[in-house]
Amino acid sequence: MPFLNSQDKSRKVAFTTIPFDSSTPHVRSNNAIVLKSAFSIEDMKELFIAKVPGYNEALEAIGETLDVFEVHVKEAFVTIDFENVGTVSF
How many CB atoms lie under 10 A from the CB of residue 29? Predict the structure, then answer.
């Protein structure tokens, strides 16, 4: 995987989502694993374009240089608002 140092054997990652409208809801986890997907950019192209209008130009320009990765989450901490928080397991 090009984004990982060849010396780094760990696939463990942490993440936090960022609310898009300055509200409180978010999800975070420090117990996730990133893996290269069996899907290609071509397989996922229509989903990306549907989510991000105009992204087709970027995919046409650099799509063949991109890889798809999946984040597998076993457990996450979810905050809906200041009163509704908790851990979910998958």
Answer: 19
Q: Are 33 and 71 in contact (CB under 8 A)?
A: yes
Nearest CA among 80, 66, 63, 68 for reference residue 27: 80
- pTM of the entire predicted model: 0.71
Domain holding 18, by residue range, is 12-89
Q: What is the CATH number of the domain that holds 83?
A: 2.30.110.10
73 phi/psi in degrees, rounded to 5: -110, 130
**Structural domain includes residue 51:** yes
Q: For residue range 34-55, what is the model confidence (pLDDT) as tens digits?
A: 999 999 999 999 999 999 989 9
Q: Is residue 31 part of a domain?
A: yes
Per-residue pLDDT of 55-66, as tens digits, reads 999 999 998 899
